[in-house]
Amino acid sequence: MEDCFETLISSYLDSKVGIVEHFVSEELAQHLLKRLFELKEQNLLKAAGIGNAAKLTQNSAIRSDAIYWLDRANNNEHENAFLDQVDDFVSYLNRSCYTGITGYEFHFALFDKGSFYRKHLDQFQDNSSRQFSMITYLNENWQPEDGGELCIYDGDETQKIAPTNRKTVFFKSNELVHEVLESHKPRLSVTGWLRRD
């Protein structure tokens, strides 16, 4: 896995946006996808909010995805397998780049057909603990006409990233404004932030 981790870090250092095509195994991606669909069937996905703590609000004109937080207390072996891999990546990142990451938070995200997330930064104005944003996609056979690209803005530069299966994207939470363009079919991911509390 260290080759995978190194690709993610080196591509981030080269262009402010780290990308690796296969952060999770095919088997784990399938299990996570199945888990996400089970959560949807059980009505456990909740409309995502904007802001944090007491400032948390819902505004479907800005953000229209549904989420479910990963937690080891859920006792789901596939969630835990993903979090184990995040633990390994954080250890490697701290060891190789001295980032001082002390924790993380991840959720499943489902963008149903017609859903989007308008331009935003991932770090809260009143809380700088989120250091890096990290998204792993779970979309099999994604095609260009399916939309749902992650669009990242850096000055005059715009980068569009297709949410193809098993791809992971990694960038600084306070640096790059980004958005999720409208998805034309259900778009699935595990999305989260590496924190320094």
UniProtKB/TrEMBL annotation:
It comes from Flavobacterium proteolyticum. The keyword Disulfide bond does not apply. Its cofactor is L-ascorbate. Residues 15-195 form the Prolyl 4-hydroxylase alpha subunit domain. This is 2OG-Fe(II) oxygenase. The keyword Oxidoreductase applies. Gene3D superfamilies: q2cbj1_9rhob like domain. Keywords: Dioxygenase, Oxidoreductase, Vitamin C.
